[in-house]
Amino acid sequence: MTVDNIVRLTSYLRDPAYVEADAAARTAALGGRRVPTTAIVATTLDSDWLVEIEAIAAG
Q: pTM here?
């Protein structure tokens, strides 16, 4: 599978300050493809983590 198979993304951000960077990285990684996405700020994540990404793909 490739990023073309991604049908849903969820980003868990440690800090709301990362929202813009997350959106830019997602857009770049998907090559402009639009897929349903959710961004959740989870301040309880380990402080060493910046983002955790869950991707669902279909083939």
A: 0.79
